[in-house]
Every structure is written in structure tokens, then in C-alpha cells.
Amino acid sequence: MSGPTHRIPLVPATDDHPVVVVGAGPAGLATARALSTRGIPYVHLERHDDVGGIWDIDNPGTPMYRTAHFISSRDKSGFFDHPMPSRFADYPSREQILEYTQTFTDRFALRERIQFDTEVLSTRQDDTTGEWSVQTDAGDITASAVICCTGVTWDARIPDTPGRFDGEVRHSVTYVDPGEFAGRRVLVVGLGNSGADIACDAAQAAAQAFISTRRGYHFVPKHIFGQPADQSESLPIWAERLLHRIFASVIIGDVTRWGLPKPDHKLFESHPLINTQLLHHLQHGDIAAKSAIRRFDGDAVIFADGTREQVDLVLYATGYDMSISYVPEEYLEWSGGRPQMYLNAFARRPGLFGVSYIEVNSSAYTLFDRIAHLIAEHLDDVRRDPERARQVRQIVEGDRPDVSGGVDFVSSDRHATYVEVRAYKRELRRLAKRVGWPELAPGRFVKPASKQAQTSEVAS
């Protein structure tokens, strides 16, 4: 990160120097609502033609596929003051999530403020004035701050595999429909939750399906006692681990029986797999588990255990880099393709923020609201309480809070931005209390007349 950032002045938002919000997916919409509520001038830019981000399957470059569902449950996943409808499934479909995002946009009158079909090409800050120059394909904007809300699943990561492969190699970002697997011998590489989902599609549609993984993972059933499993988040982490360990031993058993590696970490030290459907397909022989790939060999794949399989298609579900192409790389600290920001939100460079650059085993939307709330409070202080704004900058530049919650996350690039949700929320509250900001609570965004009706349904 270039230069001593404490010398860069904070710039109050005005109509001539608005805050620029980049991206109109869920993170950008939460941010726009937080700014709008406080009357902070902002410009909202979106390169696609509607809201929704990755959840609009028609957006070029989206990793969305037709069978996708939300990984957290309906009642744990909503924005503040806008719960998901009870008619939605426990784990809503991609169509329902897109619908929900659109109704949120319209209910809070955010759509008319969005400039669609406008791509941000670059940003640059003047270190003397603190002003930002934002270049777009529709013209330039002089801004007081930039909030990056463009998401984390656009820049696919494909490992370099030795050997020559005669078949087709793709990343899962290109996958859309199970029909792509018909009549083919398919290998899905990677056992994240999307990889597990796609492997289930392959198990049902392909002539032969395989899944390759270097590491074993813990499986968590989607329901416990008939309720979505993420309801246990209200427990201390030790109690949640105990609960899932008991249920896993009874319901799931030893996954090594079906060829999967034994996990080399405790539950929640990496993402758990909320997908027992994959185990169903393994148990019925619809898909076979393989070890890590050693190399390609013409029409075959050689695995680490020495076995060999003929394959037509290799689909890498191996994750993404959290690239922010329009921000100079030196403006952020990077680790493993992930930007390192205070509370995953405040860059060390004044006037630069991010909402969505976080990995957590919890609902993202509610966290986006919490993060956007604190960023908006800070930007409001830049206008109204410069002394408190400077205090926050000192905290951002000097503090390194521990948001692991005592969880020893797996040492890998992917885990560079992992947080434990309870510890993370505590740190958000601690910052708010330390500087005197109000804590975000249900009812913050609704009119007093409707507050009572709304707060009974909001997501936690």
C-alpha cells in the first residue's frame, strides 16, 4: 500500500463530490440504503442492466447455475427490516433470491438512483486533496469516497495441472445447466458448496461422474429436528460444534466409507458442506470420489492415489480471487487474492471501503447491512463530526482485531478473509460503542407507523 495514508485528508460528501457505490448486487443495495437513509449524496453504478449481481443468471460472467439455492436459510438471511416471505422455501432458490433482491430495491426506492449499464474502469485518489477520480465508460466522476460492492465470484481461479488433456477443461463459473453433462464422463474438481451442488447435477445427468478433492470436509445436515441447521448459530461455538458432532455421528456417519478423505480440521475451521444429497449419490454409486489430481494424460486423469479415469470434461470448482480491478492494487493490502481491510470493510486508505469481501458461515445479507451501517456512520461523521471521523481513521490504521473467535482456520488463501460470525459481530458492536455510533437494530429503516408489524418478522 503506497504512502502514509494518515496524511490524506477526509473529504465530506456533497452533490459535487458524492460517494460512489460500485455494484448493485445485495452488498451495493444494502450500502445504498444506508447512505440514502442518512441523506449522504451518492452515485450508484452498475455495469449490468438490473439489480441482483450474481443472482441474475442472465448477467454475463455470473457463476449462477439453474439448480442453485441459497446456502443459509430463509429466516436467517434477510436484510434488516425486509424479511424474506414465508412462502419462500427454507433454502430459497436462485429465482426467489433474485425476486427478493428486486423487491428490496423497489421498497426502499433505490432503483431510480442506480446508473445501469455503466462500468467503472478505474479509480485514483489525489493524495493531496483526498478526492477520487472515478472513470467509467459513461464519463468521469469526482467523488469523496469509493465503496466497492462488486462481489467476490467473478475472477475464477484454475490451478495449473501438469500433463496434456484431450478433453474439455472449464471452470464452474461457466456452468449453467445439468444438460451440459448428458452422455459425458465428468470430473468435478473441488469440494466447496457449489462444487458439491454441481457434482450432484453431474451424478444425475452425466454418463459417469467423479468428484476430486484434496481435503476432507465436515458435512452438516440442512435440517435438525425439522428446522434449518443454521438456527444453532445462537449457541456458543463449542455448543454448536457438539450439537453437529452428535448429529453427524448419527445421521451422516463415516464419510470415508464412500471414498471421501477424513477432515484434517475441526468443524468450522473451514466451510462445512451443507449438502447431504452428495452423500446420497455417493452411497448409490451415482458418483465416485477421487483423490487430488496428479496430472493429465491424454484422455485420462491420473490421481494422487495412482488410479486413472477416462474423462471427457474436467470442471474446476476451485474458487475465485476477490479481485477489484478498478482499484489500484497498491491501494489495498492483499493476501492470497483477498483484500485485507479493517473488519473486512475499511481500507487503510481513507475514503476506500468494501462491502462483501468476507467469508463467513452465516447469512451474508444481514452482515452487509451491519457493515454498510458503520461505513455510512463514518461518512456522515466526515460531514458532521470531523473529529470523530479522524478517531475512526486512527482505529482503522492502528487496530488489528481478532475476528477468529478462537477458531484456528485452515491455512490457505481462501481462508485469508474468514471470520467467525459471533466474534465478527462483537467487533462491529465494539467499534460502534467505542466511537459512540448507534448499533444497527430492527426498525432502523421502517417508518414508525409500520415498525411494530415489521420488527416481528425481521431476520436476526
Labels describing this entry:
25% helix; alpha/beta; 9 helices; 460 residues; FAD/NAD(P)-binding domain; 2 domains; disordered C terminus
Strand order of the largest sheet: 3-2-1-7-23
**Helix coverage percent:** 25-40%
How far is the N terminus from the C terminus?
Answer: 36 Å
The major β-sheet equals: 5 strands, parallel
Question: Radius of gyration, Cα only, in angstroms?
Answer: 23 Å
**What's the overall geometry?**
globular
Total strands: the figure is 23
Walk me through the structure.
The chain is of the alpha/beta class. It folds into two domains: 5-154 and 320-455, FAD/NAD(P)-binding domain; 158-316, 3-Layer(bba) Sandwich (FAD/NAD(P)-binding domain), CATH 3.50.50.60. The protein is built from nine helices and 23 strands. The protein has helices at 26-37, 94-107, 193-205, 237-252, 277-283, 364-384, 386-398, 421-435, 451-455; strands at residues 19-22, 42-45, 114-115, 120-125, 132-136, 139-143, 145-148, 155-156, 163-165, 168-171, 185-189, 208-212, 223-224, 227-228, 288-290, 293-298, 300-303, 308-310, 313-316, 320-321, 333-335, 338-340, 352-354. It has a five-stranded parallel β-sheet, covered by helices on one side. Helix 3 (193-205) links the parallel strand 11 (185-189) and strand 12. The radius of gyration is 23 Å and the shape is globular. Residues 448-460 have low confidence and may be disordered.
